[in-house]
Amino acid sequence: MKKKLLTAFVALSAIVTLFGFNGRNKTVSADEAHYTITSDATYAPFDFQDKNNQYIGIDQDLLKAIAKAAGFTVTVKPMAFNAAMQSVASSQADGVIAGTTITNERKAVYDFSDPYYKTGIAWATAKDSKIKSLSDLKGKTVALKTGTAGAEYAESIKDQYGFKITYFSDSDTVYRDVINGNSVATFADLPVLQYTIKNGTALKVQNAKEPFAAGDLGFSVKKGENQALLADFNKGLAIIKKNGTYDKIVNKYLSAKASTFTGSAKDNSSMWGILKSNHTAFWSGLKQTLYLTVVGIVLASLWGLFLGILGVSKNGLLRGLSTTIIYIFRGMPMLVLAFFLYIGIPAVTGTKISAWTAGILTLVLNEGAYTGAFVRGGFNSVDDGQMEAARSLGLSHGQAMRRVIIPQGLKLMVPSFINQFIITLKDTSLLSAIGILELTQTGTLIVTRNSQGFRVWAIVAMIYLVVITLLTLLSNWVEKRTNA
Question: Tell me, what's a Pfam family for it (predicted)?
Fold first, then answer.
């Protein structure tokens, strides 16, 4: 019995290892420097996805031009802004370009390039708002995107003007919060607000002619590391400024019509139009979600089964180990666990872990803990007389467990396994925070591009409901077959 448990554990470890603790995913020639760069996925016009599902924006185009001019190559990994910055701080990536304002606080953690863009902070309200001045914000709530220069500026004046703050991780949610009246204003980089308004978002900028706290945006690396990359970036930036490429890129995004990048108004005017014009992106996101779900639930089931068997062991130490593991990972929020695995551990150990591996481990440890709890409960629910009868027939405790208790317990657990499958499917949405492009992250990218939050999220919700309905039907069919 113990040998089989050990074999199962080794097999599980081998499978997880197979998926790779890899930091860089691209092999390059020895004479060409290659870097992994993180970026904000939802910060138009600096970083966003176009109608062809390609990552574009001022940052992205500048980075490509600079890399070409300076003679290096990059792999860009878009994710939430805070995750992008922390990935560099924990050495998961080599650098970050994400509309990052150069500040003294950030200089303590990062080394910055020469400034590549000068910006200022603007504040905006709903289009029909009666608020006209900062003093009108007293006692009201302002929505901010975490980690941005706009958020930093708003925090610095909130006591002076007496407003409250609520935080979100992506820009579109901030704008919707203001438009829906849950908050009355937001602060952000002026070009960001101007772009989203040009794209049809019902906001109005209150200080377009006199932005606050003008500052510089810079490319950054972890302090004391990747100095060659920093030097190459500065070299390439100087080249494209001199040859006119820089001005062409900036003007391309600040002057062009939003429909150039977002698609036609007809495509974005209905749910069918959005689904039709973005069907490739939705399908890709769904496939990634299903892939994560299947791999996650298989490994989590094996791990949970292992924990459950340990939980009914005759050995008190093994039972205590099972209980402790289940307690820890059931009590830890999935998002915290994902950040801990993807950012926390590499920062301490220096070992790079890919976002996909961190995501799978998160699902396995979290979902496996819940699975282990109901597996243990399923075995304990088998009548005690079954064990007594098996032992009276001459079976050892291990044989009785393997041939009598486990088969009966597993039959009782079938509905719980299917239910956990559904829960795992929904939980994959949390992994978008570490840059995994699953269905929820796909929706976020599309909304950032076209500002059609209601329609896009309605489509995403329907896709989830269709898949969950199919899984529920499967659950009912399996349950009937096992009880037949």
Answer: BPD_transp_1
